[in-house]
Write a structure and sequence with these properties.
- This protein has about 400 residues and is α/β, with parallel strands linked by helices.
- Helix content is about 25%, strand content about 20%.
- It has ten helices and 21 strands.
- It has helices spanning about 10-15, 45-55, 145-155, 180-185, 200-205, 220-225, 250-270, 365-380, 385, 390-400; strands spanning about 70-75, 80-85, 85-90, 95, 105, 120, 135-140, 160, 165-170, 170-175, 175, 205-210, 230, 235-240, 240-245, 295-300, 305-310, 315, 335, 340, 345.
- Residues about 385-390 have low confidence and may be disordered.
- The chain binds flavin-adenine dinucleotide (FAD).
- Flavin-adenine dinucleotide (FAD) binds next to helix 1.
Amino acid sequence: MLERGEVANSWRYERWDSLRLLTPNWQCRLPGVHYEGPDPDGYMTMAEVVEVIERFAAPALARVRTGTNVTSVRRTDDGYQVLTSRGEIRCRAVVLASGACNRPTTPSFADAVPATVEQLTPFSYRDPSHLPDGGVLVVGASATGVQLAAEVRRSGRPVILSVGEHVRLPRTYRGRDVLWWMDASGVWDQRYDEVDDLTRARRLPSPQLVGTPERGTLDLNALSEMGVELVGRWAAVRDGRALFSGGLRNVCSLADLKMNRLLGVFDEWAAAGESREEFDPPDRLAPTQVPASPRLQLDLLSGEIRAIVWATGFRPDYRWLEVPVLDAKGQLRHDGGVADSPGLYALGLPVLRRRRSTFIHGIEDDAREVIEHLTRFLATGPLGLAGDPGLGIVREQVDRIR
Ligand SMILES: Cc1cc2nc3c(=O)[nH]c(=O)nc-3n(C[C@H](O)[C@H](O)[C@H](O)COP(=O)(O)OP(=O)(O)OC[C@H]3O[C@@H](n4cnc5c(N)ncnc54)[C@H](O)[C@@H]3O)c2cc1C
């Protein structure tokens, strides 16, 4: 296992200070490592996540070679040549587990933003004290955007939030965490080959959720109440002005509709009596309150806003992958983690094999299935099952995951 930084690198260095997981503690599980603390319904801080991953990595049979940056992966006649900052490795199979969120995404028009406005991404933002004084425009209203908009607003700054397509969810529903319902009702078990529009499912924005001790809902209504101004999707920059889409009402109605549809699925599941638990009665959040005429332009040179925080998503970084398995958008083409190049696999990507794949606890089933495929691949290779030096380790890993 090659890791360019340290174990749990992304959680150590690529997250802002106040972040907590949005999945509850009981759900943050890895094979053999389950939450055993006093607060199963709480949400882990980054230090706690690092501790969980370290606990898992310590007894792992595969040695983690930290500080080893992979700079190139190339196909050879009998496998792959992997160049790293610590030398070359030849192998028959490669599992890409380099993450889905290596780089923040920003729109191309970010280059047209005047230099007087500071630009940050979730990788460079740490806390509001590092922002210049004055107004802040947060772009993107998924988990990252709503969390940062709330935090910056609490620091006393004026905040404008640019809202595109988003997934609205209440933090709790009928007395349970909304992610408990996703789990219990089987929504997260839906397999990738059963999803109608897989490309869309894999690009779905993260839900508007935050993990706080109060377990409060952080939707656009909550942000409006805090004094955050909502505007539509940021579409372009012209003559130093940000131009926002006029479709704010539509995207909000759509998010409300989809949320209510999902809650309806939970209600149906509860009514079917699959669970012996007692739940609070069904209820619905108030529709999203949209300003009567949200502004369509913002003069970026006026000084009204001094900083922009791009919360417009993340993407993987495969600049080192020299095997032709990427699509035009730079995403890996794969079938449930099996890439279109013999012996090349992937883990840790959104909806890899199931909807839960997007989250930490999705890895267990995915890893088992992908590694089973990999084991079969190695067994059919020129060296055969017994002769392959790497296979003993793979087998031990599979047993361990089981
Ligand atoms: C802001 C944010 C919040 C999230 N919140 C939650 C949450 O609340 N709950 C949840 O379950 N999931 C959450 N996720 C999703 C979660 O990050 C993933 O499910 C999980 O981290 C995937 O783990 P991974 O090991 O596949 O990827 P990563 O955690 O991204 O790890 C990939 C590793 O590969 C290393 N690497 C990359 N390129 C190279 C290279 N060329 N050479 C060597 N090493 C390399 C990186 O340094 C990194 O350590 C969140 C994601 C983000 C971005």
